[in-house]
Write a structure and sequence with these properties.
This protein is an alpha+beta fold. It has three helices and four strands; from the N terminus they run αβββαβα.
Length: 95
């Protein structure tokens, strides 16, 4: 069975990943890449990454919910895989 992360890498585009603890990230990148162009950490999720961030894009979106999250650029897939493990694995996507 293919994991949610592996499916996101294979397909490319935008994908929501929900962790077992209820926090979420949205990943975006081209199919087959080993680096996501963007990883959006939804509000409430704090990560200790030193990847570049783009808070201006979130502010310019005009969506108050987005401005409470963090947008990281050029994040290795393996960093997201590690985060999934730290958060207890996969959770259930909201319906």
């Amino acid at each position: 069975m293919t994991s949610t992360l592996d499916a996101a890498v294979l397909a490319g585009g935008d994908h929501l990943i929900v962790f077992a603890d209820g926090h979420q990230v949205t990943v975006f990148g081209p199919a087959g890449a080993d680096l996501f162009d963007e990883v959006f950490c939804h509000p409430g999720l704090d990560v200790d990454w030193d990847h570049a961030e783009d808070s201006a894009e979130l502010f310019l979106s005009g969506d108050p919910k987005l401005t409470k999250g963090r947008l990281f650029l050029e994040v290795p897939v393996e960093d997201v895989r590690k985060l999934i493990g730290e958060r207890g694995g996969y959770g259930q996507e909201p319906s």
